[in-house]
């Protein structure tokens, strides 16, 4: 008897269900005023705000780490007398990339302006030495022994070849998917000139970074780590900060007259340590600079996006994200795992969000998804994701609200929000 009663009770009590969202689940909301958050370095409308791409230290997993594929080329004369060779060059390469990554892993507080409160946020990109696939002999480090002048870097003067691209076409490897770093000797004639300084120097040219000064300096690889971070900063859209408007208000202009703090007494308070200035440190990145790099990486049309490992194309359960608070994503994101909005969580999306193949967006009972005008849920790899699922318990269910005409693309149950707009108007 008691068992029968228990079974009856079970049958009548509501069960937690999970199902794909249907057209009738969607609730249109009247467009309220744009969020009026005025940002010091806001430069445009939705998806263009650098600040929206800066990592949130409370939710670092919402900004997945990006890995830049690089390879390294050592240029030398045919008699191999002008640059590092063999194991020495291989060790230099590995040391250079690992110390550059270490600097990225420990961003430093800004020195300018004096007394600033600029937050020191984590930098969310790293380098990965990347050989050609399917070639076990390839380690991503290449040697070119060249018979003519093209092996040298001439960074100024009448014969400068800093911006010449012929050498890129000739020696570049996997230029479409890997950022090539060319390490070149200075020209011996330049080195002999009293007005030419064969110092560490570089240039960023689309898919190639050319650098020089290693062999002439003779110092250890780590001395050049900031040169790499500076030039790759250019590749991802950063410009020098000291004299121009670089689109970031947290990178102050300054006289650039001090190289290091100990140079002269007044340099104590006037020296920059920003990565995009010229100085002895080059290891401080501002929130705007970090955000700007992430924005370029998330821009589907940007060329340097192609250098990134496409970690967002495969579902990684280690990268699942659960929203438990009120969160707004105003910048584009490429997620790598499932996305869940838990009870009490509200996720407002104002820009592009890619979910990997087989990933689900689940809204639990008491959770809320708000899609703003300009929001786009899709898969950035040409695959399909599993769509929006809502949990239901009795009369309660996860909620989906939208305003304007956001898009849900590439989902197994592609619901069309424009249809819903039509119905409700
Ligand atoms: Zn520069």
Question: Can you describe this structure?
Answer:
By secondary structure, the chain is α/β, with parallel strands linked by helices. The N and C termini lie far apart (55 Å). The longest helix has 20 residues, at 86-105. It folds into two domains: 16-32 and 39-47 and 312-424, no CATH class; 65-297, 3-Layer(aba) Sandwich (Collagenase (Catalytic Domain)). The protein has eight helices and 21 strands. It has helices spanning 2-12, 86-105, 166-171, 188-192, 214-217, 225-235, 287-298, 417-424, and strands at residues 16-20, 26-28, 66-77, 125-129, 141-146, 179-184, 201-205, 208-212, 321-323, 326-329, 333-334, 339-341, 346-349, 352-354, 361-363, 368-371, 376-378, 388-393, 396-397, 399-402, 407-408. Strands 1, 9, 12, 15, 18 and 19 form a six-stranded mixed sheet that branches. It binds zinc ion. Zinc ion binds next to helix 6.
Summarize the structure.
Helix content is 18%, strand content 21%. The protein is an alpha/beta fold and 425 residues long.
Helix content: 10-25%
Number of strands: 21
Report the C-alpha radius of gyration, rounded. Answer: 26 Å
Number of helices: 8
